[in-house]
Amino acid sequence: MRHERPSATALAMAHIRALHQVLHQRGDEPAIFDDPLALRILPESVCPAADLDHGLTPDLVRRRRLYIAARARAAVDCIEAARTQGTDQVVLLGAGLDTLPYHDRYPGIRYFEVDHPATQRWKRHCLTRSGIAIPESLTYIPIDFDHDPLDHALAAGGFDRGRRTVYTWLGVLMYLDRPAIEDTIGYIAGGPAILLFDYIARDAFGPHGNQEQLHTRANSVRALGEQWRTYLTPAQICTLLTPFGYQAVTDLSQSSLLATYGIDTTPTDAGPHLVHASTT
């Protein structure tokens, strides 16, 4: 990202989540994820088209929107399941305009939002403008994932690494270089944790993926100053996680994730994948 500005892709993802609310409320899209604050937090009205849609087919735009809604729902489901087992800490890595900590859905959970300082300043302005209160259970952790140690930043914010924690890391890994990815995964593995993250499958650009459309997506992101840097395969994900002691690794392609919420799409391993793993 351009470091003096908030994340443009964070705004784009917020628009996508908000548009999903609009479409399913009027019956034009299946209801996957209900977010009563998605529209309120936006600094402008939600638009049906975004900068990231240019050059993409309507089908790919729809599948991407449903995937964004599904990964947000998966995060809620993960936190719900962990909460029933006594987990009371959640770390949102690259929180963007995510509104989960501002709901009254999970009393008793302490949240840590980790993001770039410019994006956090912008988000707090959006919250103030929209009248959304910042809960006492939330701590902001400013960080540049490429340069700042996650352990120092979280420790300074009062995070208890010894307590079982859910980490969500959505829409971030593909923007990082391999050393930053390994540092983050390694840090999380140092305590009792559940990790939910997504990545772009390397074969998305191979002969079985929609090469032209995915290159268009990559170019659109690059034009916003936030280039995709890392692509992986499911086999590489296992190779990445196993040495750190992660267990019960589940890797779902976009089509497989959507199927869990009753949405049928053309099966493919190309494009985004959502991974759930734990250290205990």
Structure commentary:
This protein has 280 residues and is of the alpha/beta class. It has helices at residues 8-25, 58-83, 117-130, 150-156, 178-188, 211-223, 234-241, 254-260; strands at residues 89-93, 110-115, 138-142, 165-169, 193-200, 247-253, 272-278. The chain has a seven-stranded mixed beta sheet, with helices on both faces. Helix 1 packs across helix 2 and helix 2 crosses helix 8 (254-260). It is globular and about 45 Å long. The model has no long low-confidence stretch (mean pLDDT 87).
Structural class label: alpha/beta
Q: Strand share of the residues?
A: 15-25%
Count of alpha/pi helices:
8
Termini separation:
34 Å
Outline the low-pLDDT stretches.
Answer: none
Helix content: 25-40%
Biggest sheet details: 7 strands, mixed
With strands numbered from the N-terminus, the spatial order across the biggest sheet is 3-2-1-4-5-7-6
Global outline: globular
Total E-strand runs: 7
What's the Cα radius of gyration? 18 Å
Mean pLDDT: 87
Question: Which series of helices and strands comes N to C?
Answer: HHEEHEHEHEHHEHE
Properties at a glance:
alpha/beta, seven-stranded mixed beta sheet, 7 strands
Give the helix/strand layout.
Blueprint lengths: L7 H18 L32 H26 L5 E5 L16 E6 L1 H14 L7 E5 L7 H7 L8 E5 L8 H11 L4 E8 L10 H13 L10 H8 L5 E7 H7 L11 E7 L2
Parallel strand pairs: 1-2, 1-4, 2-3, 4-5
Antiparallel strand pairs: 5-7, 6-7
Helix pairs in contact: 1-2, 2-8
